[in-house]
Write a structure and sequence with these properties.
This protein has about 300 residues and is an alpha+beta fold. It is built from twelve helices and four strands, in the order H-H-H-E-H-E-E-E-H-H-H-H-H-H-H-H. The chain has helices at about 5-35, 40-55, 60-65, 80-90, 125-130, 130-150, 150-175, 185-225, 230-240, 245-255, 265-270, 280-295, and strands at about 70, 95-100, 110-115, 115-125. The chain has a four-stranded mixed β-sheet with strand order 1-2-4-3, sandwiched between helices. It is globular, with a radius of gyration of 21 Å.
Amino acid sequence: MNWQADWGLRFRMFLTMFLLFALYIVFAGVLTAYLAGGANLLVFGMLFGGMSLVQYYFSDTLTLRSMGARKVSADEYPQLHASIERLSQQADLPKPKVAVIDSDVPNAFATGRNQKNAAVAVTTGLLRSLDQEEVDGVLAHELAHVKNRDMMVMTIASFLSTIAFMIVRWGAFFGGGHGRGRQGGGGVVVAILVSLIVWIISYLLIRALSRYREYAADRGAAAITGNPSALASALLKISGEMDKVPKDDLREEAEMNAFFIIPIKSGVVGRLFSTHPPTERRIEQLRELEREMTV
C-alpha cells in the first residue's frame, strides 16, 4: 500500500479542535458569569463532564445502537468479514468490529475513538446494491477514516456542539430564572443567546472539516485497494439508489450524515450545509487518481 500522510487533513483537524476549544473556553466563561447559582453550574459541569466521558469511551457502541446496527459474526456474513480483514491488513490496521444495519438505504460508516476501538457498519441495502469490488471500495473508504483518525476528532467536536445545542434548548431549566440582576432571567437569556452563537459556529466548523475528510478518505481508499474506479462506481450507484428510497427512511437516518459515505440530502438548505462534498467532484478526483496510477 502506497499510503501517504495527509498533512492538509491533519492541519484542518488541529485547527478545528483548537478553534472549538478556544470557543468553548469563552463559552464556559460566559456561563460562569451569567447562569444563576454556583450549585447550578456544579450540577451542569458534572452532568456534561460525565456525558463527555461516556461519549468518548463508548462512542462506537452508542453510535451503532443509535443507528440500529447489529454486530455480526463471520458465520453470519463471511464475505463481509473476509473483506474487512483483508483490507485492514492492507491498511496496517487492527480489524474493527463489523456491524450490519437492516435498511434499504445504501450506506456505510465508521465510528470509534481510535484505531484499536473502531467499528465499520454497512446497510443491507448497500450489500445488495454493489458488486464485491465496489463493496471493497466503500469498506476501504471507511477504513481510511480509521487510519486518518478523523473519527475521534468528529466525535469530540460533535459532542461539544451538542452541549451548546442542549443549553439552547434547556437553558431556562438550568438557569432557573431566580435571583437578581445578571443572575435573573436576563442572565439566562444571555447564556442561551451565546450558546446559540457557539452552536452555529461549531456546526459550520464541523461541516467544513467533514467535507475535506471525505476527499482524504477517498484518496486513502484508492491507496488501500489500488482501484479508485471501484469506489467511483460505488458512489455513482449509491447516489442513484438514494433517489429510490422512501423519504421516511431517509429522514430516520439523516442525523448521521457526517459519518456516512454518502450524505442524505434534504433540499437546498441541506446541500448548503452538507457534511460531504458533491459526489461529482469526488468521482472526478477518483478518476484523476486512476489516471495517475495507470501512468
